Amino acid sequence: MTPPGNTYARAHRPHSTTQDGEEGYYRLPLPNRKKNELFAIADQLLGGSRIHVVCEDKKSRMARIPGKMKRKARVRAGDLLIIKPWDIQNEKADIVFRYSRTQASSLSRRKMLPEEINVF
Questions:
Q1: Is there a domain that residue 19 lies in?
Q2: How far is the C-alpha of 92 from the C-alpha of 62, rounded, in Å?
Q3: Residue 87: inside a domain, yes or no?
Q4: Number of domains in the chain
Q5: What is the pLDDT of residues 59-82, one digit of tens each?
Q6: Residue 55, domain extent
Q7: How much is the pTM?
Q8: Cα–chain-centroid distance for residue 62?
Q9: Under a CB-based contact definition with an 8 Å cutoff, are residues 78 and 104 in contact?
Q10: Contact, 95 vs 66, CB < 8 A?
């Protein structure tokens, strides 16, 4: 006699689509304008956990990948990011969040990206 499979996982797994065929939306973090955060596109890797980004205000900045993010998420050229410019030097910034390709295309489809950086 074979033991039954994991019936709980099959019966209670979350579905990403509804009965209408409409895909479910996941809550994505957006830039907090009160904290001076912006959308940016990663342009060029510079090495030493630094990356050249093009921001939504059409400025080019050098962004730093913090150690917490460096260990979890790999930032590559062409990625959509949330950055926070430095108060002292406006041409430098810290990376707050990196979107995956599917998350970035979802934001683009929902028209939540500014026209300056909407390349998805």
A1: no
A2: 5
A3: yes
A4: 1
A5: 999 999 998 888 888 899 999 999
A6: 37-120
A7: 0.74
A8: 18
A9: no
A10: yes
